[in-house]
Write a structure and sequence with these properties.
Elements lengths: L14 E9 L16 E5 L3 E5 L6 H9 L5 E7 L2 E2 L5 H10 L1 E4 L11 H12 L4 H10 L15 H12 L6 E5 L7 H17 L3 E6 L10 E4 L1
Parallel strand pairs: 3-8, 3-9, 6-7, 7-8
Antiparallel strand pairs: 1-2, 1-4, 4-5
């Protein structure tokens, strides 16, 4: 059987759409009104989106569904009109390599590696960012003196800043940020937002960010309640 070609070869993903999506765990429950779940919703590559949610509303699930790391939902998720349920493992790997970047709430840093090594590990796979720009981001975020520290010895706020840098070390059409600044103060929130917005605009990409009350300070084009 001839292998189906990757659906986004030579082109970018311009739209992510949700149709009547709902986490399986919420099925057959009386769920509160939502502008995301059980709706018709589209995210375009020109947008900056904030999804506000209470704890347990499914914001991390939404991020994982879009990234393809979870599929335990009802309804349909489409990229440029193509149903993601038909994507192969190879398709998802290519999407994560070139089209969708993801900063999970749990950060997923390797504690035994240094802050810089955690970033370099990804950047060496993508060859996307030069070392000077990485060093500049560490400096701007106030963690240049922690570049050679094991990630496991950093504070949660320092880990978040390392994970932000790592998330930018790849090409992307959509950047998914799950509570990216929950442990940052106002100043570091602002600096992180500047770095993220600059890189997103440089790549002509979109942002989908989630928050439970401390959103990253971006000029959102649309805010939604989960």
């Amino acid at each position: 059987m001839k292998k189906q070609s990757f659906p986004f070869s030579g082109r970018r993903i311009s739209e992510i759409s949700l149709s009547e999506m709902l986490p399986n765990v919420f099925l057959n429950q009386d769920n509160p009104p939502s502008e995301v779940w059980m709706s018709q919703l589209s995210f375009s590559r020109s947008g900056l989106y904030l999804v506000n949610a209470g704890s347990g509303a499914g914001k991390s699930s939404l991020a994982a569904y879009i990234f393809g790391s979870r599929t335990d939902f009802a309804g349909t998720l489409r990229f440029d009109g193509i149903d993601t349920s038909g994507f192969s493992i190879d398709d998802w790997q290519e999407i994560r390599r070139r089209h969708i970047a993801y900063l999970p709430q749990e950060l997923s840093l390797f504690p035994e590696l240094t802050a810089l090594e955690n970033v370099q590990l990804k950047n060496r796979l993508t060859n996307h960012v030069d070392e000077n720009r990485i060093a500049h981001w560490f400096e701007k975020l106030g963690i240049a003196d922690r570049m050679d520290y094991p990630a496991g010895r950093l504070s949660i706020g320092q880990m978040q800043r390392v994970a932000i840098i790592r998330s930018l070390c790849q090409p992307f059409d959509f950047l998914i940020l799950d509570e990216p600044v929950s442990h940052l103060d106002i100043n570091n929130n602002r600096i992180a937002a500047e770095i993220i917005l600059e890189e997103t605009r440089r790549q002509d990409a979109a942002i989908i960010a989630t928050s439970v009350g401390n959103p990253i300070e971006l000029p959102y084009t649309q805010q939604l309640s989960l």
